[in-house]
Amino acid sequence: MDKTSNDCRKCCSEAPPFEVLLEDADGSEWRTVPRDSVSIRGRSVILDLSAMKPSADAATAVRYAWSDYVDCVLENSEGLVTSPFLHPVPPPESSTRNPALRRQGGAAASVPEAANSPPSIRTPPMGFNSWNFYHCNIDENTVRAIADAMVKNGMRDVGYRYVNIDDCWQVQRFDSGEIQADPARFPSGMKALADYVHSRGLLLGVYTARGSLTCQNRPASYMHEEIDARTYCRWGIDYVKVDNCGGSNWPRTNTSWIKFREAFDSCTVDTGRPVVLSVEYCGSVDGCGEWIARTANLWRTTADIETTWSSVVRNIHAQEPMYRIAKPGHFNDPDMLQIGNIGLTVDEQYSHMALWCVAGAPLLVGTDLAHASNATLAILTNPEVTAVNQDLGWRNNEVQGRIIKKTEGRSEVWAKRLADGSRAVLLLNTHDTRSSDVTVAWSDLGLASSATAEVRDLWRKNDVGRFTGAYTAEKLRPHSSAFIRVTPKEEWMTVDQ
Ligand code: GAL
């Protein structure tokens, strides 16, 4: 379909992004489906494979937008961009193996809309990442302790699922080319660790880089993407971060990512489990922003976050203009949370959390969760706050909130329109030394200026009351914020509704 108009014809006539796998006694080969073999029927794209040599019956799989960037996309029934997918083509005598794909007259394959794609994530990933706190000092006992803690301290039940090991778990490659986990730090092996994490109702992530070395000079995945992805799949890995370091590299930034995407989606076909692909780096709407959501689930938008307020603000500001790229299942990533680490005041930690939630950013906590204080857990596990992060937004398609009003050096108002039409609003005092009031007018939110709306304080989990026209958070301390939900009464609904 055309990127914007929902019209498939342009895409399918100019550069059909479909390939089929043809297998015969001499081997197998991916072949582009020629343009005159692609047609549209309703919401289905029909691939007529009858002209394929050796024969249509040799087709065992079909894939979409697989090999590289194509200048057109399929959209699903919600108008969202479809991820690349791979489906097996059932043998002619059986049309039940994958009801999503049926032979047409024994010689054509119908590619279904995205509803039939492999399962994938929809909301920003929530979990733990080892880098900010442990750096290279990570081992399997720590990972187990973190997983146990996430169950015990309630984080799992609030939605934190991923336990992600960052750099330094890998030491070398075996002669076979397969990556080897550090035998001293991970003596039980990654499969056993994944089994353990899964047994706790959680998911396991690992790290690699697209160059030949990771940022800490461990072996990375250049020219080893397929074997690494197969290995991760065998271990049961659920999330892979592909960093941007180091040494030799593919000439095109996205070659490595596409190879991983391809391999992970084929892992999903085999196992039924999605594998989240996190990549570094895409920092602009133009260029990579045009296509990155078709390859990755999340992409770093900024430099590494530090444990300072200026770093928190720099990172969240840098990705704010990229809100258009973010979609369900595909997120701008301003880097991990520093909540619980030394360097931010308590007020700043509350604001950091609320900023990441209103901005629909991944919530990957980079602190020692095995020893997290009650204060840290209070910030991380407020369900009304994390619900803003996990809400897919208006029409289930506006995952990233935005700055709607700003006075430089003094205040910012952020808002995200939630799926039910209410607004999550963050009122932030950005002044470094002075307390001040911060106001949101209903007209800033696209509501009638005379509207009345219920205001709920999300941190305190209480209803503040009904307000007409505006709400002011009074005497906010420097770098502190109020995080509220504004629900307009029905008779005063949004101007544009
Ligand atoms: C950086 C990356 C960090 C961390 C580190 C590990 O490039 O941005 O998040 O993964 O490498 O070496």
Describe the 3D structure.
There is one protein chain. The strands form 6 sheets. The chain has an 8-stranded parallel beta sheet with strand order 17-16-15-14-13-10-9-18. Strands 19-20-21-26-23-24 form a 6-stranded antiparallel beta sheet, with helices on one face. It has a 4-stranded antiparallel beta sheet with strand order 2-1-5-6. It has helices spanning 8-14, 131-134, 140-152, 155-158, 190-199, 225-235, 253-271, 288-291, 309-319, 346-358, 374-380, 383-390, and strands at residues 18-24, 27-32, 38-41, 44-48, 59-64, 86-88, 103-104, 108-111, 126-129, 162-164, 170-173, 179-181, 203-209, 239-243, 276-280, 298-300, 331-333, 363-365, 402-407, 411-417, 423-429, 436-441, 452-457, 462-468, 470-476, 481-488. It is α/β, with parallel strands linked by helices and 497 residues long. Bound molecules: beta-D-galactopyranose. Residues 131, 166-167, 207, 214-216, 243, 245, 280, 304 line the site of beta-D-galactopyranose. Beta-D-galactopyranose binds next to loops.
Strand and helix layout:
Elements: H1 8-14, E1 18-24, E2 27-32, E3 38-41, E4 44-48, E5 59-64, E6 86-88, E7 103-104, E8 108-111, E9 126-129, H2 131-134, H3 140-152, H4 155-158, E10 162-164, E11 170-173, E12 179-181, H5 190-199, E13 203-209, H6 225-235, E14 239-243, H7 253-271, E15 276-280, H8 288-291, E16 298-300, H9 309-319, E17 331-333, H10 346-358, E18 363-365, H11 374-380, H12 383-390, E19 402-407, E20 411-417, E21 423-429, E22 436-441, E23 452-457, E24 462-468, E25 470-476, E26 481-488
Parallel strand pairs: 9-10, 9-18, 10-13, 13-14, 14-15, 15-16, 16-17
Antiparallel strand pairs: 1-2, 1-5, 3-4, 4-8, 5-6, 7-8, 11-12, 19-20, 20-21, 21-26, 22-25, 23-24, 23-26
Bound molecules: beta-D-galactopyranose.
The site of beta-D-galactopyranose has 11 residues, from loops.
